[in-house]
Task: structure prediction
Amino acid sequence: MGLAYTISPATVLDGVRMMFWAAYAVKEINTEEWIVDLLELVQTKDPGEKEFHQAVAEVASSLKPALERNPKYRQAKILERMVEPERVVMFRVPWMDDAGGVQVNRGFRVQMNSAIGPYKGGLRFHPSVNLGILKFLAFEQVFKNALTTLPLGGGKGGADFNPKGKSDAEVQRFCHSFMLELFRHIGPDTDVPAGDIGVGAREVGYMFGMYKKLVNNFTGVLTGKGATWGGSLIRPEAAGYGVIYFAAEILQTKGKTLDGCRCLVSGAGNVAQFAMEKLLHLGATPITFSDSSGYIFDEAGITADKLLFIKELKNMRRGRVSEYVERYPEAVFTPVDPTHDHNPLWAHKADCAFPCATQNEINAQDAHNLVQGKVQVVTEGANMPTELEGVHILQDNGVLFGPAKAANAGGVSVSGLEMTQNSMRLSWTRDEVDSRLKQIMKGIHQGCLDAAEAHGVAGNYVAGANIAGFIKVANAMLDQGVV
Ligand code: NDP
Ligand code: 2IT
Result:
């Protein structure tokens, strides 16, 4: 028998694979140049998506050591593939207002990456929502979900619907119309949405009801469900509690605790409320919070009673934060001033800061003010609340900086635990879920430190989070081939 007949198909395949990698290897480009090229490509392809460009730039600029260590990531164009969503659906959401008028909104779902699990991520209902914002959020979600150690891919969606000033019936009609299209693109093993800005228990309930009616199937297709119909205990608290668990871990590396710390918090929604609650549990004192109309500074400290008032104000009455000073006249309300080049909330003296409202709420000037105010720790509750220049100013001045994709991963982690409980058809106790959440946040913190250390950027949580999340997804993509 001749030699040709002894070569197995597997050997031939190996040979082809080697030729494939060799062809790439001859075209040697330096990593920095390659990163610049990638950012240019992203900007040229979708020029209007500035938040998405910002998120990609932040990740790409910290991946250099990982890309240089394993040339296959560049050869297989892993990052080029990661910036391209696997699928985007965009759809009309028509609904009727209480006066009988027809309203039309635009709905989206960005299914970014499913290398390590079904697409997972929240839905945002806010008038500012557009494709660029949802692509930035979906891109961040891919890395965040990888850090949780749970089998979750990344996605994000939402609509440019403004829930403010809408009646309950209008919100219900909108949610039902939104799900009338979204239902065909999601499923418990395909894509599992949850809440985000403007989407809480009420909206998840209406969307779940419509999904169940359409598919005639009671299944865990959304997370953040009510506790009596498939929701997990601690899911409402999870993102805010997780942020504070993460900050406690950061402080512990310096032998410190949150006990006695004075804390700046922004936002007054789900994440901000439960971040403040956990700060109080751990002996710290929140002194600020905000919404889109302005912020409150309460020098005496926000107590558990005052927090109850905030929850009732924002969750039941959907009111504005200025009402707080009517009840607690010792506090000060400062309205948003669009002519300001900075947010005065971040100029108060404090030990820690927790931005928990929205993207880009800490710019370079705010970062300088935080440094000036002797803030030692900034831990992000919102997604990308700090502009890249602000991040560098904080890090260069020795502020311990916990980035969103690690620090706020508690929300999606408990969503993952909700999916597990749904699959097992059982519910865990509050203590069980809370202790798993704590363990996950501890693990994410350690994972960031380990990845940073192993890649020559010890102590840099931003680089550590990006590298650890990237490697997990990238290796899965390599294993699965060019799909
Ligand atoms: P909520 O809708 O419950 O609260 C959002 C808060 O931020 C409100 O106080 C809102 O003010 C304020 N806000 C929203 N948009 C703006 C804006 N453009 N300018 C100023 N203030 C604004 O949302 P969440 O608390 O759920 O989300 C807050 C952040 O946390 C977001 O970045 C979200 O992506 C992120 N996140 C959420 C998780 C979750 O599980 N919910 C998990 C991880 C991260 P107003 O009341 O005036 O609208
Ligand atoms: O940004 C986020 O991580 C979320 N909004 C939570 C997503 C989820 O699927 O629970």
Q: What stands out?
A: The pocket of NDP (ligand 1) is lined by residues 122, 126, 128, 195-198, 239, 267-272, 291-293, 356-358, 381-383, 408, 411 (CB under 6 Å). The two ends are 38 Å apart (CA to CA). The chain is about 50% helix and 15% strand.
